Amino acid sequence: VKKNGKNGYQFFSSVLNEQLQEKIEMEADLRKAIDEKQFILHYQPQIRTEDSQMIGVEALVRWKHPTKGMISPGLFIPLAEETGLIYSLGTYVLKEACRQMKEWHEEGGPLIPISVNLSSQQFHQSNLVQVINDILEKTGLAPQYLELEITESMMMDAEISGSILNDLKELGVRISLDDFGTGYSSLSYLKLLPIHKLKIDRSFIQDITSNTNDRAIVATIIAMAQHLHMDVVAEGIETREQLDILTENDCHKIQGYYFSKPLPAEEVEKAFFVPNRV
Ligand code: C2E
Ligand code: CA
Ligand code: CA
Ligand code: CA
C-alpha cells in the first residue's frame, strides 16, 4: 500500500499540475480572445406551440478558438468569472445581441425580444444600468426588446437584488428567471420583485414522461407563474412526448432541441423568418 501510495501521489500531483497548466493557458487564450473578438453568438428560438411562431430568442456565446475549435460556454464562462474577464466578455455579448436584434427588426424580422444571460458578477456590477443604457442607446434597440436572464442564486439578498431589479425595470428591460427551481432561495421574493418570466429548468423536463414527481413540480411552477401573471417557458424540450405533457399542463412556450438548437444568425433567419420579405 505504501509503495502504491507514493506512486499514486506523484500521479495525482502531475495530473493536478497538468490541469493547472491547462487552466493558465486557457486564461491567457481567453484574454487574447476578447481582444481579438473570437466570440460569436448563437441564437436559440423560443416557440409558441399553438402556431409554432418564434416569440423570443436566447443569445448563447461560443468561443471560436483558433486551434481548439468551438468551445462551449460551460467551459470558459466559469474561468471568465474567476478572472474578472466576464465584464468585458459580458458587455460584448450584450452589445452584439442588441445589435443583432435591432438589425433583425430593421430587416423586417419579427418584433421579439432577445434574451441575454447575466452572470452574478455582472448583475452586481455597480455600473450595470449605465452599461446597459449605453448599449441600448448605441444600438438603438428599444428597452422592452432586451430580456436579461438571471438566476435565483442572485436573489439571495432580496434587498440588494430588489434595488438592482427596480433600476432595471425603470430602464424598461425585461427580467427572466433562468434555471427556475434549481436554486435554494425562498419563493417570497417572487411576489416582491419585478420579474416577467420563469424558465423551468431542463432537469425537471428530462424525465417528465416517466417521473411523476418532476411532473408535479412542473405543473406547480406553471400554475404559480400564471397566478403571479408571469410568462413561463419550459427549457430543454427534446421530444414530442415532453411537449405533450407541457401542453396538457397549460405551458405553451418552449425552448429546446425539439424545435431548434442554438443557431448562427443566418440560420435563424432562414428557418424562422417569414420568407416573403425582401
Ligand atoms: P442556460 O442559460 O441554461 O442555456 C441553455 C443551455 O441548454 C444552452 O447550452 C443550450 O444549448 C442548452 N439546450 C437548449 N435546449 C436544449 C435541449 O433541448 N437539450 C439539451 N440537452 N440542451 C439544451 P450552452 O449554449 O452550452 O450554454 C450553457 C450555459 O452557459 C448557459 O446555460 C448559460 O448559463 C451559460 N452561458 C451561455 N452563454 C452565456 C453568456 O453570454 N453569458 C453568461 N454569463 N453565461 C452564458
Ligand atoms: Ca439562459
Ligand atoms: Ca437555463
Ligand atoms: Ca442579417
From TrEMBL:
Ranges for the EAL domain?
A: 23-276
Keywords tagged on the record: Membrane, Transmembrane, Transmembrane helix
Name the chain's protein: EAL domain-containing protein
